[in-house]
Design brief:
Helices cover 7% and strands 28% of the residues. It has one helix and ten strands; from the N terminus they run E-E-E-E-E-E-E-E-E-H-E. The two termini are 21 Å apart.
Length: 137
């Protein structure tokens, strides 16, 4: 499973699940387009992630981590989360989820592995909640 990082809100020691900014999920029509019947498809968008804390956008990285990420100016109430242990390469992330890595290698998208409903995709993302750990080193 590829190692990925994401800045998210914390909820009882785990990432907060939802479809808002900084939550474990996607924002419909912003992060991924919806098709007839609220369907989502691979290759069209998904939940943004990075290969390491240092590659995440400084705008999102909490200010308290400015000693690691120059220009960090995100909210200190957010945390940096890590999931997986392998290289950040395209491949399966969890059941129903696939990682697509942008050509620059600095950004990736956790997408549906196949066409599915938005609800099923959001549920697959939420099911990864126990696999995320805080990693702010």
């Amino acid at each position: 499973m590829p190692r990925i990082y994401r800045i998210m809100k914390e909820d009882h020691g785990q990432p907060k699940v939802g479809d808002g900014f900084g939550e474990l999920g996607v924002r419909p029509e912003k992060d991924i387009p919806l098709h007839e019947g609220r369907q989502v498809r691979p290759g069209e968008g998904g939940m943004s992630v990075g290969p390491c804390l240092r590659e995440l956008p400084p705008l999102l990285v909490p200010m308290r981590l400015g000693h690691i990420v120059a220009g960090a100016r995100g909210r200190n109430s957010y945390r940096c989360w890590r999931m997986g242990g392998g290289l950040c390469e395209p491949g399966p992330v969890a059941p129903g989820l696939h990682l697509r890595v942008e050509p620059d290698g600095k950004h990736g998208l956790v997408e549906p592995a196949a066409a599915t409903s938005l609800d099923a995709y959001q549920q697959a993302l939420a099911a990864t909640r126990p696999a995320w750990t805080i990693d702010e080193d």
